[in-house]
Design goal:
123 residues; 7 helices; mainly alpha; 0% strand; Cytochrome Bc1 Complex, Chain D, domain 2; binds heme C
Length: 123
């Protein structure tokens, strides 16, 4: 992927200057991009991808890992995969209006999902 091209398409600074992502804002953007970004008409991410866990499993699998909804994905990987999808997937073209900050926020949310702690049995 050309970073210069990604920057041009996203109206964003180069990847090295990527703003730090905020996972809470990322969750709001993933759940309801239209409302959270102020761009009316954007579909929800889950309408195509089901859930953030499903996306995380796909990213893990596509970068050599297991299909694991709680895979440990680095921020940089989440960011690279999302930027590539925004550029390359025609289905996601509408989301090119997102700012660099919003893309970072979504990547941060993707990264920070943790495996749920199952209750342990006490005797
Ligand atoms: C209209 C359908 C659609 C919507 C809405 C959509 N996507 Fe996608 N997205 C796709 C398709 C199709 C692909 C390529 C196939 C795949 O990875 O499932 C893709 C790929 C991706 C990938 C690349 C995964 C990888 O590493 O291979 C990421 C990350 C992603 N989408 C995130 C998002 C996020 C975040 C949103 C919401 C802001 C979103 N998508 C909204 C259709 C959509």
């Amino acid at each position: 992927m050309s970073l210069a091209l990604a920057s041009a398409l996203l109206g964003a600074p180069a990847f090295a200057q990527t703003p730090a992502g905020d996972a809470l804002r990322g969750k709001a953007l993933f759940d309801n991009p239209a409302q959270a970004s102020g761009n009316n008409g954007l579909m929800t991410c889950s309408s195509c991808h089901g859930s953030v866990e499903a996306r995380r499993a796909t990213i893990s699998q596509n970068t050599g890992g297991a299909y694991d909804p709680y895979a440990n994905i680095e921020f940089g990987t989440a960011m690279t995969r999302l930027v590539a999808a925004l550029q390359g997937q025609q289905a996601m073209a509408a989301f090119r209006v997102l700012t660099a900050q919003q893309v970072s926020d979504i990547a941060a949310y993707r990264r920070t999902r943790r495996r749920p702690i199952l209750p342990t049995r006490r005797n």
